[in-house]
Amino acid sequence: MRSMGSLLDTAIDAPEVREYDVEAVNRKETRPPLYVPRKKIHPRRAHGFFRTFKWWVMAATLGIYYVTPWLRWDRGPGAPDQAVLVDIPGRRFYFFFIEIWPQEFYYIAGLLIMAGLGLFLVTSVVGRAWCGYACPQTVWTDLFIWVERLVEGDRGARIRLDKEPMSGAKATKRLAKYVIWLLIAMGTGGAWVFYFADAPTLLVDLVTGQAATDAYATVGVLTFTTFTLGGFMREQVCTYMCPWPRIQAAMMDEESLTVTYRTDRGEPRKPFEKNADWDTRGDCIDCKACVVVCPMGIDIRDGQQLECITCALCIDACDDVMGKIGRPRGLIDYDSIANDERRRAGKETKLRLFRPRTLFYFALWALIGLGMVYVLLTRSDLDINVIHDRNPLYTTLSDGSIRNGYTFKILNKAREQRTLTLHASGLPGIALKVVGSEDMGDSPDPYFTVKPDRLQSFRLLVTVPPGILKGDAADLRFVLKEINTGQTASYNSLFRGPQ
Amino acid sequence: MSDHRHVDEFTGVETTGHEWDGIRELDNPLPRWWQWVFWACVVWSVGYWVVYPAWPLVSSHTKGMIGYSSRAEVAQEIKTATAGMAGQLERIRKAPLEQIRTDTGLREFAMAGGRSAFNVNCSQCHGSGAQGFKGFPNLNDDEWIWGGTLDAIFRTITHGIRNTEDENAHQSEMPAFGRDGILTKAQVADVAEYVLSLSGQAADGTASARGKPLFTDNCAACHGDNGQGSTEFGAPALNNNIWLYGGDKATIVETVTNSRRGVMPAWGRHLDEATVKQLAIYVHSLGGGK
Ligand code: SF4
Ligand code: SF4
Asked: At what angle do helices B249-258 and B185-198 cross, to 10 degrees?
């Protein structure tokens, strides 16, 4: 039987506790073997610790997302003053005091690996906390449901409205809801593009129709996806589209905390009766408050399920019920499989946060983090990259000396022009020549200037007198030195000759 | 195929009626979103036929409303790129070679253009790194058969060597001393020994002593008294470590016997002046330019 909605919810004989007419979308007994059309879910509003916590997380995550592009950070003249900016045409990534060049993409890779390992760690400790609290799909769906509730009312009113024939009032409500959704969706897409250009300028451009087609297209696509994913697809994204629910089981073990219904305490479930003998029956009064608040539309009492995003709203709902009927809270709670077994065996329950798995994830995570901090602290704003010519590998000159050609690239990450000298060591009698710099003076080491904030390539010829090179190759070390500051950057390469 | 309806017991869904070794396929309806996408694609494709070139006809094809063609698009892109380069190319055409070489902006532009022109036109003989092959000089080193100054390189590229298409091509002829009977076999061997000694390689002293007067009489006019070569006659230096065909005795004997006659096209007839200039700058920059 399909749910008839809260019209049939029955008030039961306890103050403010009632039994909800609801059925889990994936109810065990009637779970169909193949694809079924989506059953619409009308989650009821929950109240309690986790709901409040989720509001705060939503405020924080949305706040970070919307505000970040508007933060300013002074980098001096000629440089963008946006704190966080992905400058694609200029090939720079700015993050407050950090400035990353494309050559340093490993920072981003490191951050992504850290994010991944962090997710592993969190999942192994508290299950799908990411899904339940911080995932954009969850946050925006939550926001969209909040708007829905604001316009159309809570669960009962929404079910009634769905059933009602179309009328002026219904159309107005629907329209209002869609318009607000659309505005949120546009705001979401709009905020995204601000990360890729100077936000105040781009805002003016967007509004006056001056912005690039790409910007409008991006806003359009993100508006569309936010609107449909948050407004209509909701839990289907988590259940059918997202790979994460399928992988997460690999990070969890029997000690991982996750939202759990305590079967030992709850069963046998029975409708509420006054002055019940709680020793002979379970604490669950089968009121289905936990099902009715679930944004995934499932029944946690059926056990761990792929659909559960561990949003913990069922904990709030049940705690509320337990409070009202005077039973201890925590019939649904964060708990682990190991604790369940311990309880059955009559042992003390415990929280084992430090296990080989969590320690391993943490160690890996911390290691990469420390490595990145180290690299960041020792990052130089002068770098050199030397590429040996592939063809020819060497040239024999008329007097028998051997010459090798190199392309060398200087990364001047500073915002001023610099004068540098290049020195090569490793073989006696080395002569250096930078193609195009022969008029720059008669120092034995060529010197030249590189422009600010620039990668510049030069062609370098290294000649060694006849008879010096033993064998077909020798190590060669290039040292680049800034004349004023003495700052150096070096590169180890090879010098090649005939077999 | 059976024509009676068969309903799967477990799911209550009708099957397609096919059966393979007892396996039947459920005839579930296509998902609605899939159908929507399908019909949207159909509608889209009709619009596409109208707007873009689509249907092949007997000798042509439907052109579409906006007259799009990928060939025209490429042509347009090339045109835009050429227009973008026009200013720089014009400056290169006007400027003397030495000025291009010393002006950083022009030089970088010319080197880039020269490199791509080299890869297209020159690398077949001289190699992609201009490293040369037997009979095709290495352009990285410091020996230049016809001169290694910017102007000499430019001239060589423009007019070529020993070709028939350009009357200003470099011309010179080495006699086939052995084949034409100018020197006997033994004399050729003696000259070869002397040439070996010129470049400091191990040589038979007495044979080389016999070869020396023969060299002075027959070879020195072009290759110089000490084998230092002459860019005027395109006669390579014989007293250094660089050999166009090979510096071992057998190859030298072969060279003296049959002579050598390298040719090169007159690129001035195939490429425009700005390109030849860029080529000259590029080749000069490879390391051996004088
Ligand atoms: S678990 Fe709690 S909220 Fe759910 S039906 Fe039982 S008593 Fe009600
Ligand atoms: S079962 Fe509970 S924790 Fe899981 S999704 Fe539903 S309300 Fe959230």
From this structure: 120
Is residue B147 domain-shared with residue B275, that is, in the same domain? yes
Cα–Cα distance between B228 and B230 in angstroms, integer?
A: 7
- CA dist B242 to A399, A403, A429, B246, Å? 9, 13, 21, 8
- Say whether both B280 and B145 belong to one domain: yes
The verdict on residue B174 lying in a domain is no
Structure tokens at A50: 């986790």
A331, A283 Cβ separation under 8 angstroms = yes
Name the stretches of chain B with pLDDT < 70: 1-4
* A441-468 pLDDT tens trace: 445 677 778 888 888 888 888 999 988 8
* Residue burial B174-195, b: 16+ Cβ < 10 Å; e: rest: bebbbeeeebeeebbbbbbbbb
Q: Are residues B149 and B234 in the same domain?
A: no
- Taking only the tens place, the pLDDT of each residue in B27-78 is 887 888 899 999 999 999 999 999 999 899 999 888 888 888 889 999 999 9
One DSSP character per residue, B122-143 reads: THHHH-TTS--BTTB--SSSS-
Identify which of B11, B129, B285 has the shortest CB distance to residue A392.
Answer: B129
CB burial readout B99-114, b (16+ within 10 A) else e: ebbeeeebbebbbebb
Show the CA angle centred on residue B145, arms to residues B124 and B218, nearest 5°: 125
My answer on whether B127 and B247 are in the same domain is: no
The number of angstroms, rounded, from the C-alpha of A58 to the middle of its chain's C-alpha atoms is 15
Tokens of A164: 């009602």
The CA–CA distances, whole Å, from A148 to A139, A162, A164, A181, B64 equal 14, 12, 16, 9, 46
- Three-state SS at B117: helix
Tokens 């490993």: give the residue: A106
C-alpha distances (whole Å) from B120 to each of B92, B115, B281, B287 are 20, 9, 16, 20
Work out the burial of residue B130: count CB atoms within 10 Å of its CB; fewer than 13 is exposed, 13-18 middle, 19 or more buried: buried
Counting the structural domains of chain B, the total is 2
DSSP structure string for B140-174: SSS--TT--SHHHHHHHHHH-BS-SS-TTSB----
| pLDDT value of position B6 | 79
The pLDDT score that the predictor gives to residue A429 is: 87
Our answer on whether the CB atom of A476 is closer than 6 Å to any ligand 2 atom is no
Residue B215 lies in a domain: yes
The residue contributing the CA closest to ligand 2 atom 3 is A310
Residue B127: domain span: 72-169+264-285
CA A78 vs CA A75, A416, A418, B58: distances in Å: 8, 11, 17, 60
Q: Please tell me whether residues B198 and B160 are part of one structural domain.
A: no
Contact across the interface for A398 and B142, Cβ inside 8 Å: yes
Q: What is the CB < 6 Å shell around ligand 1?
A: A 261, 266, 284-290, 301, 317-318, 321, 331-332
Rounded Cα–Cα distance for residues A224 and A232 (Å):
11
A428: tokens are 């006696």
Q: Does residue B233 share a domain with residue B278?
A: no
Report the distance separating Cα A361 and Cα A126, nearest Å: 14
What CATH code is carried by the domain that includes residue B195?
Answer: 1.10.760.10
As a whole number of angstroms, the distance between CA A384 and CA A386 comes to 7
Beta-carbon count within 10 A of A269 CB: 14
Q: Are B194 and B215 in contact (CB under 8 A)?
A: yes
Structural domains of chain A, ranges and CATH numbers in brackets: 1-368 (no CATH), 382-496 (2.60.40.10)
Q: Are B240 and A398 in contact (CB under 8 A)?
A: yes
Task: Say whether B242 and A34 touch across the interface (CB within 8 A).
Answer: no
**Nearest residue on chain A to B288, alpha-carbon basis:** A397
Mean pLDDT (whole number) for A428-451: 73
Q: What angle do CA A112, A116, A118 make, to 5 degrees?
A: 110
The answer, for B37 touching chain A at a CB cutoff of 8 Å, is no
Ligand 2: distance of its center to the CA of B67 in Å?
Answer: 57
